[in-house]
Amino acid sequence: MFTKLALVSSLAISANAMAMQSMDDAALSAATGQDGINIGIALGTDGINISKLYLHDNDGLGTATGIVGASGTAGAIAINGITLKQTSADPLLNLAIDTNGASGTNGAFLNVAATVGAVDVHVGSIGVGTSGTVNETTATRGITETAPTEIITGLDLSLGKITANIQLGAAPQGAMIKVNSSLQGGLNISNLGIKDAAGGGTIKLDKIMVRGANATGDLDVNAGISVKTTGLEIKNNSTQAMNVYLQGVHLGTAASIGDVEVQGLNVANSTITISGH
């Protein structure tokens, strides 16, 4: 009996001693499944604020186009204020970063698995103006006018949580950024107005609702984003149909003409290419 107790005790002591042996960082990471880097970003109550954002077209609209008003003068799109606030307790951004070595036909690549939390985005007035001169001391340029000519009165955007995977290097997933996720609750845009500065009127949409054509309204987001020699390419791989509802369509200051409803909109396998000219 004592022999059996001694044997069991010795086995237990040996196991505990093995468990308490020190491990180097690589062995510890492999044992705990914590290889790579995790980064979590949470915003404060004020979120992210941008006072002004300018997109400068350095050569303007060339006179060779023959379009009325073309002068080849540098102009800018001016956005007056952008605010982004997270709407859940989860971090705004979670990143899981790993580096994978070459294997088989695939080369080495950096992989970043990203989760973006639900956010509300407010975009202020959008206008156009004449680009100023770059001030290298202050890293500013702005526009020469006191205020831009307004073309969009602003908008509010609500987005649910979404995930994406980024690969830099070999990119065996077939695109630099791969989004294959469900946008919970769809997409909401409100308070959008398109202004005719010459005519003085505004096309105003109280609310735009974009939903997946299903019981929950969740949108399937399946897209590949790549940087090609021809520019930025965004390919929609989703075959899901969408429902779009435009609530409160106003033309000028007159009463609303009503609502517009689109059911079963499908833009499967479409590709958007963005490039300079």
UniProtKB/TrEMBL annotation:
Pfam families: DUF6160. This is Protein FilA. Keywords: Signal. Residues 2-97 form the DUF6160 domain. Residues 1-19 form the signal peptide. InterPro entries: DUF6160. It comes from the Bacteria.
